[in-house]
Specification:
Layout lengths: L3 H7 L14 H12 L10 E5 L3 H11 L9 E8 L1 H9 L10 H24 L3 E5 L6 H7 L6 E10 L28 H18 L9 H8 L10 H7 L6
Helix pairs in contact: 2-5
Bound molecules: flavin mononucleotide.
The site of flavin mononucleotide has 12 residues, from strand 3.
């Protein structure tokens, strides 16, 4: 089965180098519109998008994420979990607002943000743009909350750098489906080891031959390496989420 959208989805790769050409207001508006039309849990539209145009803020975000290349993107978005707007609506109606603080609602905002981010990525790719979703803004959410003046019941979840691509990285091979798609019950396939070995060989080949940042590593080694990051990094996330008014205990 093939159509233009399926082809586009299978051509996805994150882009981290951009030309100097900024996005136009019409382009950013189109991307935000695409995000708005994505599914949203209980139709609560419980997220907001902040366009970061101030170079000083972008520079600070570069420091926080360690990704100074974001400063050269054609546009930078921050996607924020947002129950604050619905708090205003509920307070006007003198409703009980406790549920807006619940873990369930925090998760609903998280889903909304993730789905909106993917809509922006895909819409952008259909327009010839490239992007990278950035969870690394979570490295210092306290600072981002101050910087963006985020009120209670909001939380910065994802950054998104987007622009005209100045690179064309190879596609990263995804794992064989028997490792991640099951029927009715969770069941790692009987030939898990051989499937994984084949995927490790495929990923090692990808890392050894891609056109930049060559590495000698397999997917399994990559997963283990990910676990070796400083455990103090983001250790305070739950405290900051609570400080923003969410009851996530
Ligand atoms: C939730 C999320 C957070 C991510 N955070 C970062 C990030 O902080 N920095 C980065 O360079 N890439 C980030 N990425 C991009 C992934 O590294 C990338 O999608 C993955 O390596 C697969 O590569 P591909 O998108 O080119 O296929 C993130 C992706 C997702 C979905």
């Amino acid at each position: 089965m093939s159509n233009d959208l399926l082809t586009l989805l299978k051509q996805h790769r994150s882009i981290r180098q951009f030309t100097d050409q900024p996005l136009t207001a019409a382009e950013t508006n189109t991307l935000v519109t695409a995000a708005q039309h994505a599914a949203t849990s209980t139709f609560a539209q419980q997220y907001s998008i902040i366009s970061i145009t101030d170079p000083a803020i972008k520079h600070t975000l570069g420091n926080i994420t360690g990704h100074h290349w974001l400063e050269k993107s054609g546009h930078y978005f921050i996607l924020v979990a947002d129950q604050h707007r619905n708090l205003q609506i509920a307070q006007k109606a003198h409703a009980d607002t406790a549920i807006l603080r619940s873990f369930d609602k925090f998760m609903a905002s998280t889903f909304d943000v993730a789905i909106a981010a993917e809509a922006i990525v895909t819409a952008g790719e259909s327009m010839g743009l490239g992007s990278t979703i950035m969870g690394s803004i979570l490295n210092d959410t306290r600072q981002i909350i101050k910087l963006l003046d985020l009120p209670e019941l909001t939380f910065p979840l994802l950054g998104l750098a987007i622009g005209h691509p100045a690179e064309q990285p190879e596609l990263k091979p995804r794992m064989p489906q028997p490792l991640m798609h099951f029927s009715n019950q969770y069941a790692l396939s009987a030939d898990f080891d051989s499937q994984l070995t084949a995927y490790d060989e495929q990923t090692a080949d990808y890392y050894a031959h891609r056109n930049s940042h060559l590495k000698k590593i397999t997917f399994s080694q990559h997963i283990v390496q990910e676990l070796q990051r400083d455990p103090k990094l983001r250790a305070e996330l739950i405290q900051v989420i609570k400080q923003q008014g969410f009851n996530v205990d």
